[in-house]
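Try this one yourself first.
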């Protein structure tokens, strides 16, 4: 299975390039419609089915799907927005091949138990209206009765946002070649339901020629660092986490514990003097070091393998100077910037390091990169623009977290649960990323892996989870991914 994501323009380019090498667009349409029918037959028992066909190629896919369902013995008919005589090109050919019942959308038709939404595809440019909007409202109440072709009608393929007030909701969406951004970005991911990607015969070489740079997050995209037989703690990296002052220490300890659980060989909490006793009372395997002033931050930046600065760190001028001392140290370790560190740097006025990772939520993003959000089409564009401007890796947190590299690569994370919206969850994420970087993982990959691990742990724990639980559940998820040679003892 491929985890690449293609835009609407890239899909059109694949169609055109396929035709240029001998796979006609009519063949692609036939394959697409039959793929939709095959998925329906595999998931549902035969039932009265209305295939809703629009005026373009998405509607053409629907005409083919109706024919394939009829051949399979289903009670099926077509409800069309456009008279057949008004169709052209491949859609016209597909409609002419249909010999079953046809009704105009809104005309009295049999009562359907299943609706196939082939009204409009991913490239829709105007809001739904009239009968299409009415059907969309119906689908919102009964999504379990809707199968969408490509994307639910009314949803913009490149953004995952409805183009107007209405869009279809589906229990199942069948798309082609690769997922589109609408299938992974919210709210599109929610209204698409389950997404099935069908192969419609576009040549692999044609797809590869697009040089795709957007993926859905998955362990196949990155390789976690595992210790070899001769590993020792110093070889597995040293993470330093900067603590806040007295009564502001818990966030740093969460990050530190997450880094240790992720596999860092050594973890130190860098603590102001007034918080030493507070931190010492809570730490065992994690080391503690007192630090006041910029010199200590510059030193740990030069001598550790990764720093985490930001969780409950503080936002005073003194904190800003300490942060700058770490940034300006030469040579220095990668830094994971979270929470207060992002606030202290906002608005960002200079580039960081391509090995750094910044992890803002949307409010912090707006403060750090004023103007970028308002001129971006979607979260992917915004994250890419910010990463290029900051010259570091950027993880834009949310239910559809986007990780972007300065070179334009981007990954959308679809693993997780709303229960991760709890105090300290982001601090754990920062620590996971730092623990992976300290073990030698490339920072962009570490951010992707960290987001996936964090989300998977959240899914495993579910309702009632708190941030401390995430650290303790990490080993179970890591064991599932570890090479068999490292888990053999655990199985015996």
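Now uncover the answer:
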């Amino acid at each position: 299975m491929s985890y690449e994501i293609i835009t609407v323009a890239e899909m059109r380019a694949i169609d055109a390039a396929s035709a240029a090498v001998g796979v006609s667009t009519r063949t692609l349409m036939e394959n697409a419609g039959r793929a939709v029918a095959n998925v329906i037959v595999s998931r549902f028992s035969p039932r009265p089915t209305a295939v809703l066909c629009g005026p373009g190629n998405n509607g053409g896919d629907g005409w083919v799907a109706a024919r394939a369902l009829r051949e399979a013995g289903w009670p099926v008919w077509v409800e069309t927005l456009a008279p057949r005589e008004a169709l052209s090109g491949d859609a016209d050919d597909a409609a002419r091949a249909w010999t079953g019942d046809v009704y105009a959308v809104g005309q009295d038709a049999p009562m359907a138990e299943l609706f196939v939404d082939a009204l409009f595809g991913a490239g829709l440019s105007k809001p739904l209206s009239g009968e299409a909007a009415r059907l969309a409202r119906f689908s919102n109440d009964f999504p379990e009765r809707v199968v969408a072709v490509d994307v639910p009608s009314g949803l913009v393929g490149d953004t995952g946002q409805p183009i107007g007030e209405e869009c279809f909701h589906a229990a199942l969406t069948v798309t082609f070649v690769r997922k589109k951004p609408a299938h992974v970005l919210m709210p599109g991911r929610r209204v698409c339901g389950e997404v099935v990607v069908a192969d419609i015969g576009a040549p692999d070489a044609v797809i590869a020629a697009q040089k795709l740079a957007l993926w859905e997050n998955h362990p196949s995209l990155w390789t976690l660092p595992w210790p070899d037989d001769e590993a020792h703690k110093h070889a597995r990296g040293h993470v330093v986490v900067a603590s806040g002052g007295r009564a502001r220490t818990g966030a740093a300890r969460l990050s530190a514990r997450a880094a240790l659980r992720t596999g860092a060989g050594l973890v130190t909490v860098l603590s102001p003097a007034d918080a030493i006793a507070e931190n010492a009372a809570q730490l065992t395997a994690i080391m503690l070091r007192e630090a006041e002033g910029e010199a200590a931050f510059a030193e740990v930046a030069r001598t550790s393998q990764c720093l985490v600065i930001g969780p409950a760190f503080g936002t005073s001028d003194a904190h800003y100077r300490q942060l700058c001392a770490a940034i300006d140290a030469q040579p220095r370790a990668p830094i994971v910037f979270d929470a207060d560190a992002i606030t202290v740097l906002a608005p960002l006025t200079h580039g960081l390091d391509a090995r750094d990772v910044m992890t803002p939520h949307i409010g912090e993003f707006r403060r750090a990169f004023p103007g970028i959000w308002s001129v971006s089409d979607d979260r992917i564009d915004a994250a890419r623009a910010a990463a290029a401007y900051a010259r570091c890796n950027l993880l834009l947190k949310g239910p559809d977290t986007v990780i972007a590299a300065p070179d334009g690569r981007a990954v959308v994370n679809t693993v997780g649960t709303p229960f991760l919206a709890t105090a300290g969850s982001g601090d754990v994420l920062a620590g996971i990323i730092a623990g992976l970087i300290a073990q030698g993982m490339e920072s962009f990959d570490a951010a992707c892996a960290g987001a996936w691990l964090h989300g998977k742990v959240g899914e495993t724990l579910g309702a009632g989870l708190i941030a401390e639980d995430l650290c303790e559940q990490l080993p179970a998820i890591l064991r599932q991914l570890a090479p068999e040679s490292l888990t053999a003892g655990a199985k015996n």
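Discussion: The chain is about 40% helix and 15% strand. The mean pLDDT is 96.
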